[in-house]
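---------- Forwarded message ----------

FYI, see the Spermidine/putrescine transport system substrate-binding protein record below. Original note from H. follows.
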Amino acid sequence: MKNIKKIAALAMTLVISTSIFAGCSAPGKSSSKETLNVFNWGEYIDDSIVKDFTKQTGIKVNYSTFSTNEEMYEKVKSGTNNYDLVCPSDYMVDRMIKENLVQPIDFSKLTNYKNIDDKYKNLSYDPKNKYSVPYMWGTIGIIYDKTQIKDNIDSWNVLWDTKYKDKIFMSDDMRNSLGISLKRLGYSMNSTNSSEIKKATDALIEQKKSINPVYIGDEVKDSLRNGEKPMAVIYSGDAAVLMKENPGKFEYVIPKEGTNKWFDSWVIPKNATNKDAAEKFLNFLLDAKVNKKNVDYIGYGTPNKATFDMLDAKDKNNKASYPDDTSLSNSEVFIDLGDARKAYSDAWVTAK
């Protein structure tokens, strides 16, 4: 989901590769000419894992990043870039399936798929587990520096409290910020009601005037580390990383009104040129030890049961990464908005 996600990622393409000389490849390694084009969220993988995959298989990985689902969608849909593997969120997986932008995955090649917990299969966006492989899951909430803020933070309303003028980072993501505004007003984060969308938009406009928040992406972690502001809307994994780095300083809360519970999954675009390599990479990522290395680095909740079983008690009980059912009771999974997409896009332009 989701770190998701940064302005710098718009201009950044990270190419991670290892050259394997022809004639020196070990058994099972591919030719050095074979490449895999991966498109993922910013700051959403341990780079060493990509290098390990290349070392093991000989497949060069061209790894680039995006900042929002909508950015990723436009690039995949345009067909100007031939990505072999991309990582959209739940509602975007649904949309891409509907629009025939992805192809079925050969699960017979994913021997490690057995590690995925059954509760992360047959989800609404891919009910037959045909097109996607779960990667990470999490929530969106509020993180604050409790050495500076002594109030009880438990509601989205705090983001509109004038006490915190010039002290708040908001999420630079359309669905996140409009969803928060809708939820705060008592509406669904997936509302398609024009009146509700307008009220949520007006609330963001008012917030901009009275609170002067800064909209930010993945760089929110560095900004919080640097003490630029004491409060931010943040993805759970980013919060977990900061809390681990600064025990006793940061607190993460899921507001009582509820939030977005999201799932990010890997899909193979219709125009992928190396489906076989994509499936090899997926199987590699599903390995319990590889996945644990990744989870330890990025901080998100894993759908990989074999990995979860390897976590120590402290990580399993981290409420940022693995919130309890009570905290999630009012949460919603984003769905594809269909005909209401334009209304949201227009609202987002107006609000910002």
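H. also flagged this: The radius of gyration is 20 Å.
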